[in-house]
Amino acid sequence: MKPLYNYGISQEDALTEYRALDIQKNDRLLCIASAGEIPLNLIALQALAIEAVDISQNQLFLAKLKLGACRALDPPEAASFLGFTEAPPEIRRRLFDRVASFIGEDERSFWRENMSAIGGGPVRVGRFEKYLGKFRNIGLLILGERKLRRLFEQETVREQQEFFDRFLSTAFLKAVFRVAFHPRVYRKRGIAVEGLKHSGQRNISDFFFSRFRDFCCATPARRNYYLQFSFWNRVLFPEALPEYLTGEGLARIRNHHENITWRLGSIQESLGKKPPGAFNKFHLSNIGDWMTREEYAGLLTLIAEKAAPSSKAVARYIHLDYPIPEALSGRLAREEGRAEELIKRDRFPFYNLVIMETR
pTM (2 decimals)? Predict the structure, then answer.
C-alpha cells in the first residue's frame, strides 16, 4: 500500500533553523511545510508570520492536523494523539472527534477516510517512518536495548560520547547501515525516487553512519525526540517533546495560530506572486536534493530579487551542494562558519547545513 505521505515528522531541527535565521518577532518567513515541525515549532518559539507551502496536499493535511491537535488538546493528549507517545487506537479516534472541529472540511474528509492512520498515530505512518521501523528491532538487537537506554542516564554530552565509543560503536551496526541505506534498498522504500536524483549509485550509508555518533551524542539524549523516536517509535521523556507540544509552546500556538498561512504549491510559485520585501526569512529544507541545478539557481535568483534587505535563508542537503550562481555574487553570500557550528549541535544532523544572507 502506498504511504499517505513521505514524512510523519519533518527532519529539520527547528532550534537550528531558529538560530541560523536569527528569528525575531514580526519576521516574515516563507518555508517548506513538510510534516509541519518547522512552522509549528517556530511559532511555538516566537510570534512571527509564516507562509508554509508544500507541493503535497497530504503533507499539508498532516501539518494542519498537528495544528488542530495543538488547538483542541492539552500537550499530553496531543502527543499521544499524534503518535509521539503511546495510546490505544480507540483513544486516538476519540481524540480526533475533538480535533476535527479545528481543521477544515477537506482535512476532516481525508482523515475520516484514513482512520487507520489516526489510530496508529499519524506521525508513525509516513514512508520514512515505516521504512525505519523495518530496521528498528535489528538496531536495538545489535546495540542492546538496555545498553542503549543507559545512554540516557549519562549526565553530560561528554559522558554520552564516551559511553557511545565504548559500548555502542560496532562494525555490525555499520553493516546494517550499509544495507538499510543502499540505493537499491532505500530507493522507493525509504524515500521517493525523486529525492535521490543526485545520489547516483553512491551508498549514502557511510555518510549517515558518520553522523550517527553526533545523532546519539551531540545533544542531551533525554531532550532529543528524533533520537528517541527513531529507536522506540515514541518519545521516552516528556522533556524531549517538540517545542509545539510543550505547555509554553502550545499556549503560544493557540495565541498565534493565525500567523501561519498554508499553501499548496511550490515555494517558487508562492514567492513569485508576492511583491519584493514580503519575506525576510526563508527555510528551503533540502529542496535542492529534489531539483536540477538550473531550477535551484532560479530559486536563489528569485530570493535575491524578492527578499527584503538583509534577509536570511537556510537550506539543507545530503547529495549535492549547489554553489551560489556567479550572477548572484555580491547579492547572496554564505555563512560557512556559522553553518558548521550549528550543525554540530543539531538534533537530527544527517543533513549538511547552508546559511545564506542577502546583501
Answer: 0.90
